[in-house]
């Protein structure tokens, strides 16, 4: 049941924070693993390079066990819930759609059949149903889409570009300027370099919001963190650097209500979108 917010308090009530982690899954369902066509040790090596290493540990402790986190449990190489499941997905041309056939370097790692796609879709749909359910239960949401990346796995056309420690991904209808500014401020203060929509643009917005199936007032932003900012040369996360990221996200989250109120007071909201 959606929370009841009295008329007149709707726009000033705090938003429910949601931390989405789609690419840090470490489960390998047998019915999907049967498609793997390379030695298992090599598949696991690709998994480690391509997963968003320990992004679940960037979620502030106070939000990790209260229903605020939505973590996809399965390896992204078996099911990627942030790809479109049809031909409209641009990464399909690289064999890296929602049901991966190839790794980042073009190597074929799985045999993708229609039967496998149908099995994979069950995991995909279950995850999106969970996201939609969160939107249906809460009237106002602050949505963080958490990712990490490395230069090695950038799309071929972007390799060699200068990359920031933090890429802020935005969606025009759902990412207000005050939220972008707040994220930028806190990450710059923490010593990270920041860019917007470079090298990855956009932010996942749950289907229930895009389709209008719920009237949840959601704002969202993607935080795409370069692995050099918190991992060692072997790709393992460094606890102290993870702690700094977690603290930076916590400070950003906790300042959001005041920043939103200030933006409303100054007229920094567009009436047609609510942001």
Write the layout of secondary structure elements.
Elements: E1 16-21, H1 30-33, H2 40-50, E2 69-71, H3 114-137, E3 140-149, E4 166-169, H4 177-189, E5 194-196, H5 207-210, E6 217-226, H6 239-265
Parallel strand pairs: 1-2, 1-3, 3-6, 4-5
Antiparallel strand pairs: 4-6
- Please state the structural category: alpha/beta
- The helix-strand sequence is EHHEHEEHEHEH
Q: What top-tier CATH class fits best?
A: Alpha Beta
CATH superfamily: Zn-dependent exopeptidases
What fraction, in percent, of the residue positions are helical?
Answer: 25-40%
Strands ordered across the widest β-sheet:
2-1-3-6-4-5
Give the rounded overall mean pLDDT. 92
Beta-strand percent range: 5-15%
List the total number of helices: 6
Low-confidence stretches: 1-12
Shape: globular
- Using the CA coordinates, give the radius of gyration: 19 Å
Taking the sheet with the most strands, its summary is: 6 strands, mixed
Number of domain modules: 1
The count of β-strands is: 6
How far apart the termini lie comes to 25 Å
Describe this structure in words.
The protein has helices spanning 30-33, 40-50, 114-137, 177-189, 207-210, 239-265; strands at residues 16-21, 69-71, 140-149, 166-169, 194-196, 217-226. It is of the alpha/beta class and 275 residues long. The protein has one domain: Zn-dependent exopeptidases (Aminopeptidase, 3-Layer(aba) Sandwich). It has a six-stranded mixed β-sheet with strand order 2-1-3-6-4-5, with helices on both faces. Helix 4 (177-189) links the parallel strand 4 (166-169) and strand 5. The longest helix is centred in the last third of the chain and has 27 residues, at 239-265.
């Amino acid at each position: 049941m959606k929370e009841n917010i009295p008329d007149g308090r709707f726009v000033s009530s705090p938003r429910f924070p949601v931390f989405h982690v789609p690419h840090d899954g470490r489960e390998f369902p047998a019915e999907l693993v049967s498609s793997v066509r390379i030695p298992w040790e090599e598949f696991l090596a690709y998994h480690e390079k391509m997963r968003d290493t320990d992004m679940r540990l960037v979620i502030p402790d106070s939000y990790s066990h209260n229903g605020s986190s939505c973590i996809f449990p399965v390896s992204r190489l078996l099911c990627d819930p942030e790809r479109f499941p049809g031909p409209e997905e641009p990464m399909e041309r690289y064999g890296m759609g929602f049901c991966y056939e190839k790794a980042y370097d073009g190597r074929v790692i799985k045999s993708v059949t229609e039967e496998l796609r149908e099995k994979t879709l069950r995991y995909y749909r279950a995850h999106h149903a969970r996201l939609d359910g969160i939107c249906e239960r809460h009237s106002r949401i602050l949505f963080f889409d958490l990712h990490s990346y490395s230069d090695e796995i950038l799309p071929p056309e972007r390799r060699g570009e200068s990359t920031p420690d933090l890429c802020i991904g935005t969606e025009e209808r759902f990412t207000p300027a005050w939220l972008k500014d707040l994220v930028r401020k806190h990450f710059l203060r923490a010593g990270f370099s920041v860019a917007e929509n470079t090298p990855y643009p956009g932010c996942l917005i749950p289907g229930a919001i895009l389709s209008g199936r719920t009237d949840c007032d959601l704002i969202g932003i993607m935080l795409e963190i370069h692995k050099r900012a918190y991992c060692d040369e072997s790709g393992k996360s460094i606890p102290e650097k993870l702690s700094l990221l977690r603290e930076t996200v916590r400070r950003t989250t906790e300042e959001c209500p005041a920043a939103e109120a200030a933006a409303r007071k100054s007229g920094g909201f567009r009436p047609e979108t609510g942001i």
